[in-house]
Every structure is written in structure tokens, then in C-alpha cells.
Amino acid sequence: MKLIRSVRQFQTFTIMKKNRKVFVAGHNGMVGRAIINILKRKYKKDIIITKKKSELNLLNQKKVYEFFEKENLSQVYIAAGKVGGINANKNYPADFIFENLMITCNLIQASFQTRVKKILFIGSNAIYPKKTDQPIKESDLLSGYLEPTNEPYAISKIAGIKLCESYNRQFSSKFKVDYRSIMSCNLFGPNDNYNLQNSHVVPALIRRFYEAKKNKKKYIKLWGTGKAKRELLYVDDMAEACVFLMNLSKNKYLKHILPMQSHLNVGSGYDISIEDLATKISKVIGYEGGIKFDKNKPDGAPRKLMNSSKIN
């Protein structure tokens, strides 16, 4: 599929819409659902478009393009992708890099080809080096080696940021495209994934302690030393930040970013050790057994506290 060749061609196919048509890719995920709830509350005139996996395979470039061409969309939230915790990233690296790269490339390219002017690409703090100053600033991207256990996923998200930046640099003046990126800390909340093989830290701990209490286990064993720290954010707060950034005026947005450093961090501003987090969750659930840490298992990044001063 060829890129749009001229401003005239772009303008010919661009029509005025009475109501914005907003596509939330990944609407069944935790972030996607939260974004939809906020859009329905704040932008009641928006027409929200969603597609199930059975209806639209985001890995299929042709099908994605045909869907975009038919819908005539105004905005696209890219919340779709393959996600998981440290165990899933460790066991399925090829799946993580391939699927996330394909989904991101297909959605951004189809958006451009069908005159979508606004995209918000959503990623996570996995993009940052394993060892870097804390709190992590946006400028720390690509300043060191990534955490090995989630490097494939991280590279796919870095590629998404750079895709958005590259399209902006090449086409913003001619076609008025405005593609933005937002990176979150660890999220938790409603509609989270509790599968023990591929869930993130909070839902994984909730399920482990719930089942340990139910089965009256004397102790549970967790990966790592427990000393690694994680910054946590409730998913509705992340969704609020996404909708805010998508609808922020371009002039205000451009004051806080650079052409090749355009992503913004979103976090709570404080972190907690895995050991302390596990203790808190065990108390909330009412589990009275012990906690042991398997030091032969990886911790992941030692700390990932982000500097969110720009978006704040």
C-alpha cells in the first residue's frame, strides 16, 4: 500500500464530520475500557468505534486498512497489544515483539492512509533502561540497556513512539497529522488480567493470596528478592491522562515536547517494594500464612519510578 502522494489527495478525501468518530483499539483491555468510560462521560457526542478480535484482526494489514477506509475516523487510541508480566515476557519473547510491532505499524499506517489526524499511542515504563537515574525522565529513553526479560516488548513500544514522531516530522506540515505517545507506570484496577502465566504484579498477587487463603496454604513463594520497587497507578487515572493528552491543544502540547522526544510519562509519583506490596495485599485479603521469595528467579528492573512533571 502506497502512502498518500499529495496534499491535494489528502484534502480531497478529508470531510467535515458533525461528530467525531473515535476508534479505541484494545477496547476489551483494562486501559481501553477505562478510556471508553471517560469518553462517554466527557465527550457524549463522540461516536465510539470498537472491534472484537473476531471482527478485526489487527495483525492483518489489509483488513485494518479496509476497516479504517470504511469508518472515516477522527481519532485513534492505540491501547491494543500483547501484554503480560515478567513470566509471560520471559517465555514468549517472539510473540511479544512480533504482535506488538505488527499491531502498531498497521494501526498507524492505516490511520495516515485514511486521513486520521490524531493518534494516541499508549505504552509503558518498560521502554526505559534497566539502570538509570530515578525518577526516570522522558529524556532517559535509549540512554542504556533494557531489562532483558521484557526487551522485545519494550522495543516494540519504543518503535511505536518513533513511528509517531517520524510521521509527525515528515507529514505534520503537509497533512496536519498529530500523533502523540503516552507511557504509564504499572497499572491496576477493574478488568485487569488475573491469569497467573501472563498477569502483571498487582493482579498476580491478588490471585495468589486469594487462592492461598482459600486453600489454607501455610506460605506462598514469590519470584525474586522482593526488593525491586514498582510505581503503581489506578487505571482510571491513566485513562484520564490519555483523554486529556489526546484533546490537549497542539500549541500547549508542543511547548512540552521535542520532535524526537515527544512521549510523556504518567505515574503516581511514588513507588513500593514488591515485598511491601505483597504484605499489604495479603492483609487486605486476610491471608495469615507466610511469604517466601525465590531469589533464583529474576526481579526484573530494580526500580522504575517515573518523572511525570511534564504532563502534570
Description:
- With 312 residues, this protein is α/β, with parallel strands linked by helices.
- The protein is built from 10 helices and 11 strands.
- The strands form 3 sheets. It has a 6-stranded parallel β-sheet, with helices on both faces. The chain has a 3-stranded mixed β-sheet with strand order 6-8-10.
- Helix 6 links the parallel strand 4 (118-124) and strand 5.
- The longest helix is centred in the middle third of the chain and has 25 residues, at 151-175.
- It is globular, with a radius of gyration of 20 Å.
- The protein starts with 6 loop residues before the first helix and ends in an 18-residue tail after the last strand.
- The model is unreliable at 1-17 (pLDDT under 50).
Stretches where pLDDT is under 50 for at least 5 consecutive residues are 1-17
Provide the residue-averaged pLDDT. Answer: 92
Report the β-strand fraction as a percent range: 15-25%
Oligomer: single chain
Q: In total, how many beta strands?
A: 11
Keywords, separated by commas or semicolons:
312 residues; alpha/beta; six-stranded parallel beta sheet; three-stranded mixed beta sheet; 10 helices; 41% helix; disordered N terminus
Summary, kept brief:
Helices cover 41% and strands 16% of the residues.
Give the SSE map.
Elements: H1 7-13, E1 21-25, H2 30-42, E2 47-49, H3 61-71, E3 75-78, H4 86-91, H5 93-113, E4 118-124, H6 151-175, E5 178-184, E6 186-188, H7 201-214, E7 219-223, E8 229-234, H8 235-247, H9 250-254, E9 264-266, E10 271-273, H10 274-285, E11 290-294
Parallel strand pairs: 1-2, 1-3, 3-4, 4-5, 5-9, 6-8, 7-11
Antiparallel strand pairs: 8-10
Helix pairs in contact: 2-8, 3-5, 5-6, 7-10
